[in-house]
Design a protein that fits this description.
22% strand, 5 helices, alpha+beta, 6-stranded mixed sheet, globular
Length: 168
């Protein structure tokens, strides 16, 4: 497992062992691939497959645009990322986060390292109200928890310790 920069010094992504691409690139490749989206829609019994594909393509483009705009304008990534669970409050070390845009059917999951510093752990097409109710998003819940354990094992608790890890 290693960590790649997307928009350094604020947004990073995990690159899991055995994967060709890092998580951000892998997800965007899937979410902008019409044949992947059609197959996904069929596997999930989506009624209007063409609309589903059109909507997910638009969603992926919107996420890319929002992240790029935030970083170009030096805005905090907290404009996009929110706590994963509504019950979480206050300042928390290695907070689990989700990228959320209103009326967007895609979620990117990340861990907040510190103010305006996040590392993406994965993502999913939102098919159910809660993550636990769909196999793909439930798998992402497992991945984000495993990634957090990895960061804890490497004594990551702020940007300084995080930058030390990625520069080793």
């Amino acid at each position: 497992m290693k960590i790649d920069a997307i928009f350094a010094p604020s947004l990073f992504t995990f690159h899991y062992s055995g994967e060709v691409d890092n998580e951000y690139d892998r997800l965007m490749d899937h979410w902008t691939d019409v044949s992947y989206l059609r197959k996904y829609a069929k596997e999930n019994a989506v009624v209007n497959i063409n609309q589903f594909v059109k909507d997910r393509l638009k969603d992926a483009e919107q996420i890319q645009d929002v992240l790029e705009e935030i970083t170009i304008n030096n805005q905090p990534l907290e404009f996009y990322f929110r706590t994963l669970f509504d019950t979480e409050s206050g300042i928390k070390t290695l907070s689990l986060q989700k990228g959320k845009i209103i009326k967007n059917g895609i979620r990117i999951y990340a861990i907040k390292i510190d103010t305006n510093c996040f590392v993406i752990t994965g993502g999913a097409i939102k098919m159910t109200q809660t993550m636990q109710d769909h196999p793909d998003s439930n798998n992402e819940l497992t991945k984000i928890k495993t990634a957090k354990e990895y960061l804890q094992e490497h004594s990551i608790f702020d940007t300084d310790s995080f930058y030390e890890l990625i520069n080793e």
